């Protein structure tokens, strides 16, 4: 092909057709430039396709992690509600001088349970290291940041506060007033049986601690519930973002 164009140029020069030669040379340059531009365009298109595939994969990993985390988050909400209900039930029994029942042992342990929630943020950290600017939906970026950073930080602070409260206030009174009598899969502290149920009714320190636990658990519940609703928004935004790139 190169030899063919060279022969054309040579013939034009030999025939003295300088004007035609210049036109031809310019045309040849234009063709070369067009060829280069086409090649660059194809290369850019291929690179963009590769980039899109990487970004879609990141979004899909976020979606997959999020959907499984929502199941866990829903369980956490249910567990916190259960713990609050156990505390309220015990207070009702103690304040109303109701007789002891074996079923209370589960609630004595469940009242102390701490459900802070776990955040699997590997997919988010991967997206963050890649750069969240690739996400076109600003609402999606905002929800991701809130769920995996702001809300998670708040939950961690609550967890640290509750751990401190447990070590200072709950653990001593638990060891003083209760004995562990069994294990329950749904109950981290297992089955706790009071050493003396009647004297427990008169123990205002214990009932005050239960009331404090309820307040702290309701704060947990607020953040867990908000996080779950934000996750619902995230699932919708992620699906929309993925579909827009296909």
Q: What is the compact description of this entry?
A:
It contains seven helices and two strands, in the order H-H-H-H-H-E-E-H-H.
Task: Provide a descriptive summary of the structure in words.
The structure is a single chain. A two-stranded antiparallel ribbon has the order 1-2. With 246 residues, the protein is mostly helical. It has helices at residues 2-14, 18-95, 104-110, 122-130, 138-177, 197-201, 204-245; strands at residues 178-184, 187-194. The two termini are 40 Å apart. It has seven helices and two strands. The protein has one domain.
How are the SSEs ordered, and which strands pair?
Blueprint: H1 2-14, H2 18-95, H3 104-110, H4 122-130, H5 138-177, E1 178-184, E2 187-194, H6 197-201, H7 204-245
Antiparallel strand pairs: 1-2
Helix pairs in contact: 2-3, 2-4, 2-7, 5-7
Radius of gyration: 34 Å
Which parts are unreliable, with pLDDT below 50 for 5 consecutive residues or more? 1-5
Number of spatially distinct domains: 1
Mean pLDDT: 79
What's the number of extended β-strand segments? 2
- Please summarize the sheet with the most strands: 2 strands, antiparallel
Question: Quick one: overall form?
Answer: rod-shaped
Distance between the termini: 40 Å
Structural class: mainly alpha
Discrete helix count: 7
User: What percentage of the residues does DSSP assign to strands (E)?
Assistant: 5-15%
Secondary structure: helix percent: over 70%
Strand arrangement in the largest pleated sheet: 1-2
